[in-house]
């Protein structure tokens, strides 16, 4: 059966001196380190294509940081960045705030903290996983249509939706400790999809921009 590998690329580091949870807020740009991460990933994909990979599709979340992360890869591979709304960051009640114990103690937030399994403060994990995996399957099928069996796609997205999709693909519980997500800045969660059935048949995680992680922001995404 035809298959395709879809690389879920988390965006690079964001310039966020206030340390807020920026979520879906507009105009949060990459930091200088984040731009270097994006360029490093572009070099990684360029080397992959030199070695025979056929990357024929590049999509990004509509948010600024994802579009900016995609740009160097688009230039390196000669691809257009297509916008994919299904891989946008998760909705979150705490968007725009510093999430710390003092903020969480405010009574106005209490009703959003009653169910961490869903979670009650934002978009359900199940909904995030479903929309991202649907986008992955569609990207895999489009890649095969454009480039034949084995052609690949890149989707530039955000930590939490990528992690929820990975947990779902691996058959694991979606509730988790945000500090333990294996999804660093500019990392790749690569899913190989059987395009006939839409099933994820294998998954691989890599960090092509690992050299830029020391000293980078470590606050989990939404």
UniProtKB/TrEMBL annotation:
Keywords: Hydrolase. It comes from the Bacteria. Signal peptide: none annotated. SMART domains: PGAM. One of its GO terms (molecular function) is hydrolase activity. InterPro entries: His_Pase_superF_clade-1, His_PPase_superfam, PGM_Phosphatase. The keyword Cytoplasm does not apply. It is an enzyme of class 3 (hydrolase). This is Histidine phosphatase family protein. It comes from Sinomonas terricola.
């Amino acid at each position: 059966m035809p298959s395709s590998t879809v690389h879920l690329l988390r965006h690079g580091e964001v310039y966020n001196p206030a340390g807020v949870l920026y979520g879906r807020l507009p105009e949060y740009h990459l930091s200088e380190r984040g731009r270097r991460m994006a360029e490093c990933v572009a070099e990684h994909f360029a080397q992959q294509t030199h070695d025979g990979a056929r990357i024929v599709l590049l999509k990004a979340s509509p948010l600024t940081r994802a579009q900016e992360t995609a740009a160097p890869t688009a230039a390196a591979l000669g691809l257009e960045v297509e916008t994919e709304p299904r891989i946008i960051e998760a909705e979150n009640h705490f968007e725009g705030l510093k999430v710390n114990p003092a903020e969480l103690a405010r009574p106005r937030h209490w009703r959003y903290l009653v169910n961490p399994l869903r979670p009650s403060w934002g978009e359900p994990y199940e909904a995030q996983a479903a929309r991202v995996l649907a986008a992955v399957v569609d990207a895999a099928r489009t890649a095969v249509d454009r480039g034949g069996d084995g052609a690949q796609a890149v989707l530039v997205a955000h930590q939490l939706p990528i992690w929820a999709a990975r947990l779902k693909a691996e058959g694991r519980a979606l509730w988790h400790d945000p500090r333990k997500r294996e999804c660093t800045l500019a990392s790749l969660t690569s899913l190989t999809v059987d395009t006939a059935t839409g099933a994820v048949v294998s998954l691989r995680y890599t960090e092509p921009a690992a050299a830029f992680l020391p000293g980078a922001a470590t606050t989990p995404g939404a």
